[in-house]
From TrEMBL:
Xref: InterPro entries: Kinase-like_dom_sf, NH2Glyco/OHUrea_AB-resist_kin
A Pfam cross-reference name: APH_6_hur
Keywords associated with the record: Kinase, Transferase
Biological process according to GO: secondary metabolic process
GO terms of molecular function: kinase activity; phosphotransferase activity, alcohol group as acceptor
Domain of life: Bacteria
Name by which UniProt lists this protein: Streptomycin 6-kinase
The species this protein was found in: Orenia metallireducens
Length: 312
């Protein structure tokens, strides 16, 4: 099985010497996975991120996805989330090997993602139905990080390492205040996917939509809407017929849909979006060689959302 060069470059760029060592071990890990789960017809997935993913046939499970990670910690969190969701609006989790940092999952077939729907409003309504029914309560909240953990780590690092400018630091201060208000209005913390965007929502043979690749994070239920709205803003803004006024109107429509689905006010949904966008911008600054134009776009989007909130 050939490991793509772009994937190797990405791993080394991000993980350094640790990544180099893992890449040396990866062929042996894959051979052991093949033997452990009796895998055949293995095909490497396209557009790999930081996990090595391939499709295969398993003697016991049929069509599967094999996911191998450099860090077992994040994969373990994903595995725990998948186990608790137990196929509820999400792909099934079949098996996990902590020593190999490898996981075997149901393959959603044909697996067309949400962007396969040409109409943006149809994408929105499908996502809203799925996302509003996704969060679940669990008995042990300590199994997963919280949104508070995510914000705390990212914001502390940004302030200590001084990797962001004054504009984003000001937005971070506002996001912290807004996030505290969101939490005060809802004492219940539930298990969230944490990364429900267009490419993590796939359609199966029956026409149902299922999620893949959960991060696994605890938070208030309506925070689940933020990642999709953020990504949908990018999808819609890429259209040639969209100007700033139309984009604002479209944002208002999205916020209204999710406010109705979660039985929350529009300002709470918009606040969730703003917090997530500031957090995502901090994460973007942590990337190896972040692009200046993308950083500026992220900050501009945070300010655009904040202006929208002030006008509600």
């Amino acid at each position: 099985m050939e490991i793509p060069e772009y994937f190797k470059d990405k791993i080394v760029q991000y993980f350094g010497s640790k990544g180099e060592e893992w890449l040396k071990e990866l062929p042996d890990i894959l051979d052991r996975c093949r033997e452990k789960w009796s895998l055949t017809d293995i095909v490497v997935a396209e557009d790999l991120s930081f996990n090595f993913v391939c499709f295969a046939q398993a003697a016991r499970y049929g069509e599967v996805v094999l996911k191998v990670a450099i860090s077992s910690a994040e994969l373990y969190t994903e595995m725990k989330a998948l186990s608790l969701y137990n196929g509820h609006n999400i792909c099934k989790h079949y098996d996990f090997d902590s020593k190999l940092a490898a996981m075997l999952l149901e393959r959603v077939v044909p697996g067309k993602n949400l962007t396969s729907l040409e109409d943006n409003k149809e994408q929105l309504m499908v996502a809203a139905d799925l996302i509003s029914n996704f969060p679940i309560g669990i008995d042990n909240n300590e199994l997963f990080p919280t949104y508070q953990d995510w914000l705390g780590r990212a914001f502390d690092r940004a302030r200590k390492e001084k990797i962001v400018g004054a504009k984003l630091l000001s937005l971070m201060d506002i996001a912290e205040e807004i996030f505290d208000d969101i939490n005060q209005q809802s004492a219940s913390q539930v298990l969230l996917h944490g990364d429900l965007h267009h490419w993590n929502i796939l359609q199966d043979r029956e026409g149902d939509w299922k999620a893949i690749d959960p991060k696994g994070v605890m938070g208030v239920a309506c925070m689940e809407s933020a990642r999709f709205i953020d990504n949908h803003l990018n999808v819609v803004s890429a259209r040639e017929d969209i100007d700033s006024l139309n984009l604002c109107n479209y944002l208002d429509e999205m916020v209204s849909v999710f406010a109705s689905k979660f039985d929350k006010s529009k300002i709470i949904i918009a606040n969730c979006l703003f917090v997530l966008c500031v957090l995502s911008t901090c994460w973007r600054f942590e990337e190896a060689n972040p692009k200046e134009d993308q950083l500026k776009e992220s900050i501009d989007k945070c300010e655009f959302i904040l202006k929208y909130i002030k006008n509600l």
